[in-house]
Amino acid sequence: MATIDFDFRNQILGNEIGNTLAYCYQCATCSGACPVAQVTEGRYNPRRLILDALLGLKEKIFGPENAFNIWGCTVCDTCDEVCPQKVELTEIFTLLKNMSVERGEAPVHYTGQASTVLEHGKAIPMQPAIERRRTQLGLPEIMAPDMDEVKKLLEATKLPEKLPKSELS
Ligand code: SF4
Ligand code: SF4
Questions:
Q1: Residue 44 CA, ligand 2 centroid: distance in Å
Q2: Is the confidence at residue 168, as pLDDT, over 60?
């Protein structure tokens, strides 16, 4: 049986936005409207995630085996719009995602993409095939990002410290 982690619970409830989860009365309107819950036939379940966070059941939320519970959310904001209690689900899930990153449990496709932005200033670096296609379509040349500025901004967010060392060049 999962145990209650009061520190974790207080961490969420002590957050200005996270504390809105205290108003959840488990009506499941969020899960009914969530597109990810629909396509995964309930495997992803925002109502359950909110309940687990409210109860402080940390071990049901974190750990590599539970990664989809947090990272399945596409941040479409539908749940926020339909929640009758104005629970800020998406923001609460962002808090959980940030904790998952701190624990080194973020899925590699997220950290890999963040590393690419850190290195190239964009999620999809320019490639000769893309350049050729743009020329064929008569599209203008794309300006290279100012990497000094991009790095300065990302360092201010402490992104490089949070990425797995193996992904940094
Ligand atoms: S819609 Fe709001 S009140 Fe209802 S279960 Fe979801 S978070 Fe809780
Ligand atoms: S923001 Fe996430 S949890 Fe909410 S409806 Fe969209 S995918 Fe589902």
A1: 9
A2: no
Structural domain that includes position 71: 6-102
Distance 32 CA to ligand 1 centre (A): 10
CA of 130 to the centre of ligand 2 (A): 32
116/59 same-domain check:
no
Q: What is the DSSP letter of 94?
A: H
CB distance 48 to ligand 1 below 6 Å: no
Q: What is the pLDDT of residues 38-59, one digit of tens each?
A: 999 989 999 999 999 999 999 9
Q: Do 58 and 113 fall into the same domain?
A: no
Q: How many domains does the chain have?
A: 2
Both 87 and 123 in one domain: the answer is no
Question: Which protein residue has the closest C-alpha to ligand 1 atom 8?
Answer: 24
How confident is the model over 126-137, as pLDDT tens digits? Answer: 889 999 999 999
Residues 98, 21 share a domain: yes
Are 115 and 150 in a shared domain? yes
Among residues 54, 4, 45, the alpha carbon closest in space to that of 24 is found at 54
Cβ of 86 less than 6 Å from ligand 1: no
The predicted-structure confidence for 65-81, as pLDDT tens digits, reads as follows 999 999 999 999 999 99
The whole model's pTM is what? 0.85
Among the three residues 102, 124, 143, which one is the final residue of a domain in this structure? 102
At residue 156, what are phi and psi to the nearest 5 degrees? -65, -30
| Residues in contact with 80: Cβ distance below 8 Å, sequence separation at least 6, in sequence order | 87, 88, 89, 90
CB 90 within 8 A of CB 79: yes
